[in-house]
Design brief:
The chain is of the alpha+beta class and 390 residues long. It is 46% helix and 15% strand. It has helices spanning 7-25, 35-38, 42-50, 69-81, 87-103, 106-117, 232-244, 248-251, 254-266, 278-306, 312-337, 355-363, 373-384; strands at residues 123-126, 142-146, 149-160, 167-173, 184-190, 196-201, 210-221, 225-226, 268-269, 272-273. The strands form 3 sheets. Strands 1-4-5-8 form a 4-stranded mixed β-sheet, with helices on one face. A 4-stranded antiparallel β-sheet has the order 2-3-7-6, with no helix packed on it. A two-stranded antiparallel ribbon has the order 9-10. α5 packs across α7 (232-244) and α11 (312-337) packs across α12 (355-363).
Length: 390
């Protein structure tokens, strides 16, 4: 596939790059791997909001720009390329706002979407539970009607950004008498409601981006229900397509990719730069080829979204491919950098600002986040290729 961006799109890319480079020069941030999920900067989010870059594809009547998904992917690509601290608004912008647009009431659209666009509403994702990860339909968190409210009890694991957010999106069982996929509903609640407790989960890299959320008889007004009661699974599946389609699944570790290439050019062995070693050149060339293929997958997904269709199979293909690429990138970086490549940023001897060990440790979980690779391959097989489920 060969395509060209419009002059307006090229100009937009340069605008985003200029902004990010200026922020780096001013010391606003330093590029990090996985910054989209671990680097929280309300100040940076406000600056992005002031430029109208949150809710870029949403209708103008709700504060959006009404632009294409290709435009949004250009913005996303550059944010990831520079490792920008966009985690405050990432999830609300990527999927939650779209869910509200598709299934929310007019009141919810008028209340929530402008807050997201202004960089004021940060939404954490409350999906997985201790016994409901890849099989999310087995969730046990319950929401029971009580007059004009729901009473929610349960526990969420791996809640993205829960510690830093002021809203939590969650799914709960509202009917236990029907098939497990049919009795689920979606809610967006304020994090500071009585009965909500957020506990940071420190992962293997030391990040606190993941959290446990405990819900103990949390009283939630009916207006927090998104879409139809017991219709949450159908809504949720569409949201997961958008979650899996993002460029972050390919470029979350781009700062390492760039640093690795620079490392091979500047480091010498036997008087020659590492980039002149045929084996290393071959490994880098293969990574660059795979990266460009991944980009085309991402742009294909955006084109499908611009056609008004949820990118179900396309997103599954893209995410499965991108996950494998990032795991290979981390492995190759450690191999090329050698023993020093295992040093973290605290060591003055760490090459590439210590990005490699963070990437290597994090990448082991990439094939589980937002749908395991096994689940994604099943989607491709059954919905894309029409193969039988048994």
């Amino acid at each position: 596939m060969d395509f060209r961006f419009t002059e307006e799109q090229e100009a937009f890319r340069e605008e985003v790059r200029s902004f990010l480079e200026e922020e780096i020069r001013n010391g606003s941030f330093e590029p990090h791997c996985d910054a989209w999920i671990i680097d929280y900067s309300p100040e940076f989010t406000r600056k992005v909001a002031q430029r109208g870059w949150i809710g870029l594809t949403w209708p103008k009547e709700y504060g959006g720009q009404g632009r294409s998904f290709i435009d949004r992917l250009i913005l996303t690509e550059e944010m990831l390329r520079y490792g920008a601290p966009a985690a405050c608004h990432w999830f609300a912008d990527r999927q939650i706002g779209g869910g509200v647009l598709a299934h929310g009431t007019e009141e919810q659209k008028r209340e929530l979407l402008p807050k997201i666009v202004k960089g004021e509403a940060y939404v954490g994702l409350g999906m997985s539970e201790p016994e409901a990860g890849s099989d999310l339909a087995s969730l046990k968190t319950r929401a029971v009607k009580d007059g004009d409210d729901y009473i929610i009890d349960g526990q969420k694991m791996w809640t993205s950004g829960g510690k830093y957010m002021n809203y939590i999106y969650l799914v709960a069982r509202t009917d236990s008498t029907v098939a497990k996929h049919r009795g689920i509903s979606e809610f967006i609640i304020e994090k500071d409601l009585p009965g909500v407790t957020v506990v940071a989960t420190i992962d293997i890299t030391g990040s606190e981006a993941w959290n446990e959320v405990f819900l103990d008889s949390v009283r939630v007004p009916k207006k927090c229900l998104i879409g139809a009661e017991n219709g949450g699974w159908r809504q949720l599946v569409t949201q997961l397509d958008y979650e899996r389609s993002g460029m972050e699944r390919l470029m979350g570790n781009y700062p390492l990719f760039e640093a690795l290439t620079k490392f091979t050019k500047e480091s010498k062995r036997n008087g020659k730069s590492l980039s002149e070693d045929p084996l290393i050149r071959s490994k880098l060339a293969q990574l660059h080829i795979e990266f460009e293929v991944g980009r085309l997958h991402m742009y294909r997904v955006a084109m499908v979204m611009d056609q008004g269709r949820a990118p179900n199979v396309e997103a599954a293909m893209s995410k499965a491919y991108a996950t494998a690429f990032e795991q290979r990138l981390a492995t190759v970086a450690i191999e090329i950098m050698g023993l020093h490549g295992q040093l973290t940023a605290e060591s003055k001897w760490a090459p590439a600002r210590g990005l490699a060990p963070h990437s290597y440790l994090s990448c082991q979980g990439y094939s589980l986040q937002a749908g395991s690779s096994e689940v994604l391959r099943n989607i491709i097989a059954m919905r894309g290729l029409g193969l039988p489920s048994e």
